[in-house]
Each structure stands twice: as C-alpha cells, then as structure tokens.
C-alpha cells in the first residue's frame, strides 16, 4: 500500500464532465489527498469549488511562475492547502531545457514567508536537479521524468523503484 499523499493533476474539463462533486467524492473514497487543476480559476475556487473540496477533505494546490507577482503569489498561497506548486521556469513540463537555476525567483519565494511549503516543479529529472531546487524550497516535483520511466514496457516496476532510489540516495 502507498502511505504517501496521493495527489492528482489534470485539467478542469474532464472533472466537470464527471461532475465536480462526484469527482471529489470518488477521490476521497479511494484515498486521494489533493488535487492540482491548473486551469481552475481562483475566483471559481473561492466562489464554488473550494467548499466542495473542503467537504471531501481534499487539499488543493495552485501554481505560480517566475512571472507571478508577489501579491498574486501570496493570494494563491492563501487559497492553497498542502503546498504551493512553483513552476521552475516559463517552459513546458518535461522540457529538458527548463532553467532550474532561476536564483532570483527562488530567493523571492523563500523571502515571502508563505503559509504553505513551496515545491518546485517542471524540468526536474534527476537527483542533481532535485537537490538544486530543494536548497531554497521545501520540496521538488519530478513528474514527466518519472512517468517516462513507468511508460517503459519492460521492467517498469523495478525501473520505477530504481529511479526513486536514485533520487533518495
């Protein structure tokens, strides 16, 4: 069994097609602890969806980028629960050329004294990247690189374990 928090990330439209409350209820029933829906507008979260998430004891995480203003970062932090997802660059997820050494951005996030821990994601593919971002943040998110390991047809389970161990050790 998995004892770490299970967080789903996806887009709003499929969730709405399923039914937002039905989706949240089902997530709660199967042990999901939080959601990341990048295209859910904060105003919709505040006026409609936040209460549903709370009803089913689901955390919700907003994303911020290097271009996000300090006021907006604080606002999104106030709405988030669990952690704040800080996109490492203005790149796309899984981009090998993502800039992870955006020191000004990481320093800005660290100086804001946010309520939630900050986890950096996008472009983190190995232990060196993870260690780099966790020097100034409370965590790193490895998404695409891990999914790519799992998509390998042979020995994906063992390769997945090895990948995780390579980050931990």
Structure description:
By secondary structure, the chain is α/β, with parallel strands linked by helices. The chain has one domain (7-168): Aldolase class I (TIM Barrel, Alpha-Beta Barrel), CATH 3.20.20.70. It contains 8 helices and 7 strands, in the order E-H-H-E-H-E-E-H-E-H-E-H-E-H-H. The strands form 2 sheets. Strands 4-5-6-7 form a 4-stranded parallel beta sheet, with helices on one face. Strands 1-2-3 form a 3-stranded parallel beta sheet, covered by helices on one side. Strand 5 (84-87), helix 5 (103-111) and strand 6 (118-121) form a beta-alpha-beta unit. The model has no long low-confidence stretch (mean pLDDT 90).
- Find the CATH superfamily: Aldolase class I
Q: What's the structural domain tally? A: 1
Which structural category fits the helices and strands?
alpha/beta
Specify the biggest β-sheet.
4 strands, parallel
* Residues in helices, as a percent range: 40-55%
* Mean pLDDT over all positions: 90
* N-to-C CA distance: 22 Å
- Radius of gyration, in angstroms, nearest whole number: 16 Å
Q: What is the CATH topology assignment?
A: TIM Barrel
Please work out how many helical segments DSSP would assign: 8
Q: What is the CATH top level name?
A: Alpha Beta
Question: What is the total tally of β strands?
Answer: 7
């Amino acid at each position: 069994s998995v004892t770490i928090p299970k967080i789903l990330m996806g887009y709003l439209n499929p969730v709405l097609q399923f039914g937002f409350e039905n989706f949240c209820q089902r997530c709660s029933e199967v042990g999901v602890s939080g959601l990341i829906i990048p295209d859910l507008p904060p105003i919709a979260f505040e006026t409609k969806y936040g209460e549903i998430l709370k009803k089913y004891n689901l955390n919700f995480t907003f994303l911020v980028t290097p271009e996000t203003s300090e006021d907006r970062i604080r606002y999104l932090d106030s709405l988030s629960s669990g952690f704040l997802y800080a996109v490492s660059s203005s790149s796309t997820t899984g981009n090998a050329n993502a800039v992870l050494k955006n020191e000004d951005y990481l320093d800005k996030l660290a100086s804001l004294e946010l309520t939630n821990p900050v986890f950096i994601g996008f472009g983190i593919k190995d232990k060196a990247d993870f260690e780099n971002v966790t020097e100034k943040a409370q965590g790193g998110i490895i998404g695409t690189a891990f999914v790519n390991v799992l998509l390998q047809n042979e020995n994906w389970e063992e390769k997945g374990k090895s990948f995780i161990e390579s980050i931990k050790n």
